[in-house]
Amino acid sequence: MLENPRSPRARAVAKLAKKPARAESGTFLLEGPQAVTEALAFRPELVVDLFATPTALERHPNIAKAAADADVEAEFATEEVIHAMADTVTPQGFVAVCRQFPTAVKDVFAESPRLIAILEEVRDPGNAGTIIRAADAAGADAVVLTGRTVDLYNPKVVRASTGSIFHLPVAVGANLIDVIERAHGANLRVLAADVKGEDLLTARNDGILADPTAWLFGNEARGLPDEQLELADRIVTVPIYGHAESMNLATAASVCLYESAFAQRSAHHE
């Protein structure tokens, strides 16, 4: 059992909260039973190390079984060691180290996708992770993060995705112009979500949401500049019918993605 929270091994895991350590090792930090469960269920080959308190493994026998089935050895550690390794104050007895596994942009568009989310300069890790989760829930084929967007393997992004990073392809480090060109080459309509756009209801009534679509989401504070909006086929905004000053980016993205998901599924059933 690992008992020293200041041991070199515990320190090495804790360093993965910082991007330089992740870039050097090609690994990232995973915390909590939900994220560990998703990793073992969908991408067990990525799990390099799994640390858990004996009490946590007793509470989650499904994780113990999944780890054994995947030939991943769970190493016991004290609560103090787990907390020293984790980025959050509530890792709930589990920390894992996983290999990074980004998808190539060209592969995203080679599979005839019907629904894609593109994130350009989304800087808040909670927003990025939540949009990945929403894209997963809406049945999107992939998410693309440009090079100006927060690191996919930032612990806050990973936590906010609640395991969705293991469910669908996520490309990183992409150039926006290249992504838009590839989207058009794959016969996707690019819809930019921005306050300067037309009402989402107009796009719905025009029937375009049922078509293969790449949604483009920009920076939380500045949105998308004019030169990037010009790359899109249409600019759409989620209307605010009440008195809210604005809408959180991840919330607006969720609405857009689900509008497309509803329209595409309705068209498929007709």
Mean pLDDT: 96
Count the beta strands. Answer: 10
- H-E string: HHEHEHHEHEHEHEHEHEHEHEH
How many structural domains does the protein architecture include? Answer: 2
Q: What's the main sheet like?
A: 6 strands, parallel
Beta-strand percentage? 15-25%
Helix content: 40-55%
Given the helix and strand composition, which structural class is it? Answer: alpha/beta
Distance between the termini: 59 Å
- Write out the strand line-up for the largest beta sheet, numbering strands in chain order: 7-6-5-9-8-10
Short description:
Helix content is 41%, strand content 20%.
Report on this model:
By secondary structure, the chain is α/β, with parallel strands linked by helices. It folds into 2 domains: 8-99, 60s Ribosomal Protein L30, Chain: A (2-Layer Sandwich); 105-269, 3-Layer(aba) Sandwich (Alpha/beta knot), CATH 3.40.1280. It has 13 helices and 10 strands. The protein has a 6-stranded parallel beta sheet, with helices on both faces. Strands 1-4-2-3 form a 4-stranded mixed beta sheet, sandwiched between helices. Helix 8 (125-137) packs parallel to helix 13 (249-269). The longest helix has 21 residues, at 249-269.
List the helices and strands and how they pair.
Blueprint: H1 8-14, H2 19-25, E1 27-31, H3 33-42, E2 47-52, H4 54-59, H5 61-69, E3 74-76, H6 79-85, E4 94-99, H7 105-109, E5 115-119, H8 125-137, E6 142-146, H9 155-161, E7 170-174, H10 176-185, E8 189-199, H11 200-205, E9 213-217, H12 226-229, E10 234-237, H13 249-269
Helix pairs in contact: 1-6, 3-5, 8-9, 8-13
Attribute tags:
Alpha/beta knot, 6-stranded parallel beta sheet
